[in-house]
């Protein structure tokens, strides 16, 4: 399929062409051209115009049936969304008097190609040899100032290498390394947007490794950099940094073979991971990011004991606090931050329960209640975590690993059900239970209602009378203990 045919199939391009049919100063630029040249499906489109980016975006939005809004005041970019939010068109004003001047200021040659919007068969404008670089699968900076002008391009280089399978050109590597200490300077939300695309790419491990090669990890993710050389106990065969990448690698393997790791719950898990979450992350991408962050609390909690035994007591809680700080640095939404914090905070629980199989219903309730709303997500994370600990310690024994995997397959259907339906509802209202027990509303009533819910989940409470009996027994037991 030719470049023009691939572009013509993209709804984003069609909407822009319909809205701007009489404009001779509008160009399709950047990723849409690159992806079409690579034979990839074109979803979104970037359009550069000679003037009035706001009015242009609104005209496209009117055709697309969605809203238009300013995306970046700094870069003069407006976005037009489709009615169903499945694609968008980003509109920017030409950075110079003509398209050639604009392309000279772009990041990489593979993104510095343009096609006239109004002419479907128009010849690409490619003054920097981006088409030839695509054929060679090469990522090359447009100019020697590419990274100095915008250090975010260092992260973008890693993202494009991971997503498109491109090799960085040697001079481009050197240019990026010169600016590596500035990689964390761009606005947090810009960093997060690039990181989302990197982590959701086909090969996020390579993206992280490219950041290492460019000496940019310390500036972008100092919490990840701090994991290097942090030696663990005999259950682990890698330091914390190597282990973290191994967890991400195993998580990707789990995603690709859910029938094996999730059993009968595979289809439900697949649907769960595809759910939108926050900040344009779906749950799958958020889980991958959670894997990258789940052990960031270990350096601060590492302790060596007699005999050389190493512990990381409290690294889950410390890690959750660090993750909150990372998300604040990224200007992430509270929804994404809470999700990542919960993954970090709860990633140890299931591992302590493997010896209890099969789980009693009350124990399962406690796990689901504790880990909601990430019960299914964090269960998958624990599997990747356990698969990544292949040392000589007792918890790394094959039978312990298999027990953990079997427990996860046991828990996942219940976690999906909880995610769909929520916790069980008691068969009696709180004020009615308080009256029946002769107590005042307050913390004690809340604890008794929790016992009732647990009984409902376990199948022991089926009526209001059952609820009162369970609550009374718990109340008397508590008073006796006091």
Largest sheet: 6 strands, mixed
Instruction: Write the CATH architecture name of the largest domain.
Output: Orthogonal Bundle
What is the general shape? globular
Distance between the termini: 78 Å
Number of domains: 4
CATH C-level category of the largest domain: Mainly Alpha
Category by helix and strand content:
alpha+beta
Oligomeric state = single chain
Total E-strand runs: 12
Range of strand content: 5-15%
CATH topology of the largest domain: Hypothetical protein af1432
Total helical elements: 26
Low-confidence stretches: none
**Rg on CA atoms, Å:** 27 Å
Taking all residues together, what is the mean pLDDT?
91
Order of strands across the widest beta sheet?
3-4-5-2-1-6
Structure description:
With about 475 residues, the protein is α+β, with helices and mostly antiparallel strands. It folds into 4 domains: about 130 residues, Beta Polymerase, domain 2 (2-Layer Sandwich), CATH 3.30.460; about 80 residues, Hydrophobic Seed Protein; about 200 residues, Hypothetical protein af1432; about 50 residues, no CATH class. It is built from 26 helices and 12 strands. The strands form 4 sheets. Strands 3-4-5-2-1-6 form a 6-stranded mixed β-sheet. Helix 17 packs across helix 20 and helix 25 crosses helix 26.
């Amino acid at each position: 399929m030719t470049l023009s045919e691939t572009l013509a199939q993209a709804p984003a391009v069609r909407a822009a062409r319909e809205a701007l049919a009489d404009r001779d100063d509008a160009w399709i630029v950047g990723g849409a051209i690159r992806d079409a040249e690579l034979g990839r499906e074109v979803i979104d489109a970037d359009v550069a115009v000679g003037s009035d980016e706001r009015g242009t975006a609104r005209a496209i939005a009117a055709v697309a049936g969605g809203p238009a809004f300013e995306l970046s005041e700094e870069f003069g970019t407006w976005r037009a969304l489709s009615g169903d939010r499945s694609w968008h068109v980003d509109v920017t004003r030409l950075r110079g008097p003509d398209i050639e001047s604009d392309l000279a200021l772009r990041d990489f040659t593979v993104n510095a190609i343009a096609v006239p919007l109004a002419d479907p068969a128009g010849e690409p404008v490619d003054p920097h040899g981006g088409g030839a670089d695509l054929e060679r699968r090469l990522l090359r900076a447009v100019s020697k100032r590419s990274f100095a002008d915008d250090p975010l391009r260092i992260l973008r280089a890693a993202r494009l290498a991971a997503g498109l399978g491109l090799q960085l050109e040697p001079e481009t590597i050197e240019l990026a390394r010169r600016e590596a200490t500035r990689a964390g300077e761009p606005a947090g939300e810009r960093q997060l947007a690039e990181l989302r695309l990197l982590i959701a790419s086909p090969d996020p491990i390579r993206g992280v490794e490219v950041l290492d090669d460019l000496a940019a990890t310390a500036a972008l993710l100092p919490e990840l950099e701090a994991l290097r050389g942090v030696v663990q106990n005999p259950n682990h065969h890698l330091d914390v940094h190597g282990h973290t990448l191994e967890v991400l690698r195993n998580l990707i393997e789990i995603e690709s073979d859910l029938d094996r790791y999730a059993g009968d719950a595979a289809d439900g898990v697949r649907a769960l991971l595809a759910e939108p979450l926050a900040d344009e992350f779906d749950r799958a991408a958020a889980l991958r990011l959670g894997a990258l962050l789940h052990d960031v609390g270990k350096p601060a909690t590492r302790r060596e004991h007699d005999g050389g035994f190493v512990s990381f007591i409290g690294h889950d809680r410390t890690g959750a606090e660090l993750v909150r700080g990372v998300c604040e640095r990224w200007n992430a939404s509270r929804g994404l931050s809470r999700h990542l914090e919960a993954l970090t905070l709860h990633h140890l629980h299931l591992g302590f329960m493997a010896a209890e199989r099969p789980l009693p219903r009350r124990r399962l309730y406690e796990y689901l209640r504790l880990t909601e709303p990430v019960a299914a997500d964090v269960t998958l994370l624990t599997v990747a975590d356990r698969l990544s600990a292949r040392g000589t310690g007792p918890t790394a024994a094959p039978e312990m690993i298999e027990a953990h995997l079997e427990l996860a397959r046991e828990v996942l259907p219940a976690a999906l059900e909880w995610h769909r339906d929520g916790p069980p509802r008691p068969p009696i209202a709180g004020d009615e239970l308080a009256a029946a027990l002769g107590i005042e509303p307050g913390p004690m009533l809340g604890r008794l209602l929790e016992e009732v819910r647990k009984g409902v989940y376990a199948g022991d409470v089926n009526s209001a009378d059952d609820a009162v009996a369970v609550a009374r027994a718990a109340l008397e037991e508590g008073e006796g203990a006091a």
